[in-house]
Specification:
The structure is a single chain. The longest helix is centred in the middle third of the chain and has 18 residues. It is built from ten helices and twelve strands. The chain is α/β, with parallel strands linked by helices. The strands form two sheets. Strands 1-2-3-4-7-8-9-10-11-12 form a ten-stranded mixed beta sheet. It starts with a helix and ends in a 22-residue tail after the last strand. The protein folds into two domains: 55 residues, DNA polymerase, domain 1; 286 residues, TIM Barrel. It binds iron/sulfur cluster. Iron/sulfur cluster binds next to loops.
């Protein structure tokens, strides 16, 4: 459910216009899970709306909870029967982040990513993207596990910038003060490196966080890991990121996955430092190191000690870096592990 659909329902059902505000209030602030729960509407009206209009554009198919209760993963069944995954994480006390999908599957076939093995089945509509946020808000409200959902990251299934129109529409909706009312700085979009939308982001969403999944700073090896690099090589990405920083004065986040003996060697670190210094000003570049979550691919995980060495090496050379906390491994909800075998459902 989003602002446009509410307007449409008001018009189609001939409902008084002022009711739109009551409906928005109940859905987006009070987390009603159906029209039946909107007690400010008359009983016959809410029953009629409840029968015709579900609040979410999918059904919960399966829910997983990590053993340490910091991560939940939901499989959601869309109206055409396809399944997507969405994750809710609690990286620090009182702080909840959802990682949402923008496509069913993904066409980019990065070799370390389980989603890439699915191929692209279709793009998600804007409403199917924002409904994932609505779903987790309802979940948090029902379970009373927090006051609110703090952050949204577009790092689930799919490449957001291969579905740019719907992703941009969904950002507008998440920031809409009448509905989700989230601050731009609580939203992050991560791309594998499609250049044109990076320029568009700088103009249209300068306050939304931007992350680039870089993973190695060598064109030949990057093309092996991430075939999209052939179309948009490292030099083009550095130009786009420099433009983004110039226009927005915001930090850009570089996601870097540590694959044992592939991306985690001293030479890799040196290349990375050299490359990041071509993005200006470099102090607005921050590296998030990700310890690889092993899937069925041949890539292997770096040890924790080695990840710490890599981070220190970057910092000694003037690049700020953190090692990202890995949540949800036991439910395959961590980075790179999102995959749904559609034919098994
Ligand atoms: S890492 Fe992202 S862009 Fe690459 S295949 Fe996976 S979902 Fe697609």
């Amino acid at each position: 459910m989003d602002s446009k659909q509410i307007e449409q329902i008001i018009e189609d059902e001939g409902i008084e216009k002022y009711r739109a505000e009551q409906i928005r209030q109940a859905i987006f602030q009070e987390h009603a899970s159906s029209f039946n729960g909107i007690t400010t509407l008359k009983k016959d009206l809410r029953e009629r709306l409840s029968e015709k209009y579900p609040l979410l554009s999918f059904e919960l198919y399966r829910l997983f909870e990590s053993s340490d209760k910091t991560t939940f993963k939901a499989l959601l069944k869309l109206s055409d029967g396809k399944i997507i995954e969405t994750v809710l994480m609690n990286p620090k006390p009182g702080h909840w982040t959802t990682c949402i999908s923008s496509q069913v599957g993904c066409a980019l076939a990065c070799t370390f990513c389980a989603t890439g093995t699915m191929g692209l089945l279709r793009n998600l509509r804007s409403e199917e993207i924002t409904d994932q946020v609505l779903f987790w808000r309802q979940f948090i409200g029902e379970r009373k596990i927090a006051e609110r959902l703090n952050n949204v990251v577009y790092m689930g299934m799919g490449e957001p910038f291969q579905n740019t129109k719907n992703v941009f529409d969904s950002l507008d909706e998440l920031m809409n003060p009448d509905t989700f009312h989230m601050g731009a700085r609580h939203l992050s979009v991560s791309t594998a490196g499609i250049v044109k939308p990076i320029y568009q982001m700088a103009d249209r969403f300068p306050q939304v966080n931007l992350a680039l999944s870089l993973h190695i700073a060598d064109d030949e090896k990057r093309t092996e890991l991430m075939p999209i690099n052939k179309a948009w090589p490292l030099a083009k990405l550095a130009e786009a990121l420099t433009d983004y920083i110039e226009k927005t004065h915001r930090k850009v986040f570089i996601e870097y996955i540590l694959l044992r003996d592939e991306t985690d060697k001293r030479d890799n670190a040196k290349q990375l430092i050299k490359y990041l210094k071509t993005i200006k000003p470099t102090h607005l570049v921050h590296v998030n190191l990700i310890v690889y979550n092993e899937t069925e691919s041949s890539h292997k995980q770096t040890s924790k000690d080695h990840a710490r060495w890599f981070k220190n090496y970057l910092e000694e050379n003037g690049i700020s870096a953190t090692i990202r906390k890995n949540l949800g491994r036991d439910i395959d909800g961590a980075c790179g592990q999102l995959v749904v075998q559609q034919e098994n459902i």
